Each structure stands twice: as C-alpha cells, then as structure tokens.
C-alpha cells in the first residue's frame, strides 16, 4: 500500500479526493491536514510515502511546508495539487523540493496515477509547468555542463528521459540500486539542476536524447 498524507484547507476537496483514493487497492490515505503547520508535523511523524500538498493555506502555505519537510526529511516525495500556475507559485514550489506538480482540475484518477508514478521515482508535471521550466532554462542554459558527464551517467540520463525509475535503471544496467542513486545525484550536480525532471528537460533541450 502507498501511504498518503493529504494536505488541503478545503474540507470538501479532501473528502472527495480521499474517498476516491481510499477506494484504490494500492493507496491508503493515512492522514489529512488543513494547514502547513499540521502538514509538517504529520509528515515528519508518520513518514508517508507520498504527500499531496495544497499551496494556499492558513498558518503556513504549501511552499513553506514543503521546504521545511524536505529540509528535515530529504527523501520525502511531495506532489503539489493546486489551482495556481503563476511563476510565483510554480518555481518556488519546485525549488523547495516538490517532486510533482498537479492542478486541482485534474481528475481523481489522474491524481492516483501521479501518486503511483511519483512513488516509483518519476516526476509528474502539468504540461504548462514543463513549458515554463523549458522557457526558463532556455534563457541562460550553459550547454557545456553536460560535457562533464561520464559515459555511464549519459546512459543513465537517457534511461531517466525514458521515464525509468532508479530500480528499473538498476535492473536494466545490472548494477546496484545504490550505485544508480549515486550516479543520479552526480548528474543533478553536474547539470546544476534540482531534480530528475529538470535533468531530463536539460537533456531534451540540449539534444542529448531524441
């Protein structure tokens, strides 16, 4: 079961989405929170597999909560679920450490799919968010950064671009999962990006993969 913490200040949203998610055979909504402060406390206490995080809330907003959770627990996987697509929300949320970014207009089934994909190590972004990141990267990208990558790191970046999780990459290359994680960390550092999604976008932008 994928353990989920659902954070949203609208009770009816929580009730509706939680009911659908709980009906899934592989998802268990173990707790709910209606503000960022409570979200941080529950996340660090329960250590759920996935955190669904609203952005605009009382007490503490979703960006602050995401940042505090990631600082205390870097392995946390946080999916932003919001109505906002403006730059002041998207970039700070991703920079704070959010793994995926969804809109509340998404169907509950799409959110469930995002939960499964994020749990498997992928990043799910709304098309509009991907476009924003690509435009931002296009305005000052250092195309020489990828020249620092080793052949093995380029191979792993290609598999990342194909949507492979760390475990799938390890299985395909017949190497240890721990080794893959080290390579991924090195790739992010060399490309000067924050997460796998930005690394993949860099790869497409610089035509390292088709």
UniProtKB/TrEMBL annotation:
Modified positions (4-aspartylphosphate) in chain numbering: 54
One GO process term, biological-process aspect: phosphorelay signal transduction system
Key words of the record: DNA-binding, Phosphoprotein, Transcription, Transcription regulation
Pfam families associated with the record: GerE (PF00196), Response_reg (PF00072)
GO molecular function list: DNA binding
Residue intervals of the Response regulatory domain: 3-119
Residue ranges of coiled coil: none
InterPro entries: CheY-like_superfamily, NreC/VraR/RcsB-like_REC, Sig_transdc_resp-reg_C-effctor, Sig_transdc_resp-reg_receiver, Tscrpt_reg_LuxR_C, WalR-like
Main location, first listed in the record: cytoplasm
A single cellular component GO annotation: cytoplasm
SMART domains: HTH_LUXR, REC
Compartment(s) where it occurs, according to its Swiss-Prot or TrEMBL record: Cytoplasm
Domain annotation HTH luxR-type: ranges: 142-207
Alphabetical list of PANTHER family matching this protein: TRANSCRIPTIONAL REGULATORY PROTEIN YDFI, TWO-COMPONENT RESPONSE REGULATOR
Protein name as it appears in the record: Two-component response regulator
């Amino acid at each position: 079961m994928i353990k989920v913490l659902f954070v949203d200040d609208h009770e009816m949203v929580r009730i509706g989405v939680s009911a659908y998610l709980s009906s899934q055979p592989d998802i268990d909504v173990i707790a709910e929170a209606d503000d960022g402060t409570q979200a941080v406390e529950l996340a660090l206490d329960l250590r759920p597999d996935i955190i669904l995080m609203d952005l605009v809330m009382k007490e503490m907003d979703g960006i602050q909560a995401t940042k505090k959770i990631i600082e205390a627990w870097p392995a946390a996987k946080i999916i932003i679920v919001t109505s906002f697509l403006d730059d002041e929300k998207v970039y700070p949320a991703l920079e704070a450490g959010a793994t995926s970014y969804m809109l509340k207009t998404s169907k509950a089934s799409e959110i469930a799919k995002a939960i499964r994909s994020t749990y498997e190590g992928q990043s799910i972004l709304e098309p509009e968010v991907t476009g924003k990141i690509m435009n931002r990267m296009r305005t000052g990208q250092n195309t020489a950064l990828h020249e620092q990558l080793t052949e093995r790191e380029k191979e792993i970046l290609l598999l990342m671009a194909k949507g492979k999780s760390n475990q799938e990459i390890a299985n395909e290359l017949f190497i240890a999962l721990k080794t893959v994680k080290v390579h991924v960390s090195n790739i992010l550092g060399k490309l000067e990006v924050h997460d796998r999604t930005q690394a993949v976008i860099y790869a497409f932008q610089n035509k390292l993969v088709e």
